[in-house]
Amino acid sequence: MNLNATLFAQFVVFFVLAWFTMKFVWPPLMKALDERAEKIANGLAAADRAKTEMAAAEKRAQAELTSARDEGQKRISDAEKRAAAIIEEAKKTASDEAARIIAAAKSDAEQQVIRARDELRAQVATLAVKGAEQILKREVNAAAHADLLNQLKTEL
Known about the structure:
The chain is mainly α. The protein is built from two helices and no strands.
């Protein structure tokens, strides 16, 4: 066997294998690698977009949370103002009611004083008649002296 012929045959087989690999194996392999690289690039781009969208969503959520917090504080302050107004209204109503009750009590007291004075006048007139009767030792007719007794009542 000749070393040159063996070397030449191996050289030819190597070139045929390289040509076959470059013609039939290499293009699908490169296509698969390119597709994989494109999928990875698309995945990274999608991850970047998702990250950007997530940051925007976080900002929107934070803005909504701040808005809800502000609205809650506003409602609380409105409720406190309304409670203060209700309390003031209740105080005013109570004050008005107290004034009305005091006025009614004063009016009632004045009426009772007037009635007591009238009763006292009647009792004084009766006592005066009895006193005069005892002094005169005779009975004084109340019906006959009604004008005199009424005059006495008005003077008292």
